[in-house]
Design a protein that fits this description.
Blueprint: H1 2-60, H2 64-68, E1 82-85, E2 99-103, E3 121-128, E4 136-147, E5 150-159, E6 169-176, E7 184-189, H3 203-207
Parallel strand pairs: 5-7
Antiparallel strand pairs: 1-6, 2-3, 3-6, 4-5
Biased composition (Acidic residues): 45-68
Biased composition (Basic and acidic residues): 28-37
Organism: Ureibacillus acetophenoni
């Protein structure tokens, strides 16, 4: 009887040891995911720290002198549509002085009747009586509205070897009707030089021709 009791006690002890081993194994497996997550979190924090360090170094690379040299955007002005006019079969005579003219259907000068469609267009003329632009070709590059009542005329002025008559520079262009009526004007070259059209400079005194 005693032997049977000892045998049962032995088997019971072995069963407890087996159960204890299984429980320990399960606890170990349950802890493993936590350890993996900790390692992943540690790697992410490390990457974030390295990224922040690189960004900080990049920001520190710009000193005050770089900031002083930073360039602001240039102003952008609304523009007036236009079309440069070329004369193929003779052109109108030059004006007696330099200046800027806007012709409309109400002020069509003699000889200009068929120049543009006067129902939809006006005619712009710029004549520059500055001796340094004698025998220069002129072309409009832009008509910019820099204020409510001020338009800047940007022009290209280049020496023209085919001209030898000491003619003052001028150019005609068609514009949409009433776009320039009542406006004031500034003339500037594409290089940014201000141009004096010569309101009081007589054409005859420059070209040597008789005053009209």
């Amino acid at each position: 009887m005693k032997k049977k009791y000892l045998s049962s006690l032995f088997y019971a002890s072995m069963l407890l040891l087996v159960l204890a081993g299984c429980s320990s194994s399960n606890e170990t497996k349950a802890e493993d995911p936590k350890e993996d997550q900790t390692e992943v979190a540690t790697d992410t924090e490390k990457d974030d720290a390295e990224g922040s360090s690189e960004e900080k170094e990049e920001e520190e690379a710009y000193d005050d002198s770089d900031l002083v040299e930073a360039v602001e955007t240039s102003p952008v002005y609304p523009e007036v549509n236009f079309q440069n006019i070329n004369w193929f079969w003779g052109s109108p005579d030059r004006q007696s002085t330099g200046g800027i003219w806007v012709y409309t259907s109400e002020t069509i000068p003699s000889g200009y009747e068929s120049t543009v469609d006067w129902e939809t267009k006006d005619l712009l003329l710029v004549q520059i009586n500055d001796p340094k632009y004698i025998d220069h070709s002129m072309e409009f590059k832009a008509l910019q509205k820099i204020d409510d009542d001020v338009v800047k005329i940007v022009v290209s002025l280049k020496p023209d070897d085919t001209k030898t008559d000491k003619e003052v520079a001028r150019r005609y262009a068609s514009v949409d009707k009433d776009e320039l009526v009542g406006k004031k004007f500034l003339v500037e070259t594409v290089e940014g030089d201000k141009v004096d059209v010569g309101l009081n400079v007589k054409t005859s005194e420059i070209s040597g021709s008789e005053e009209e």
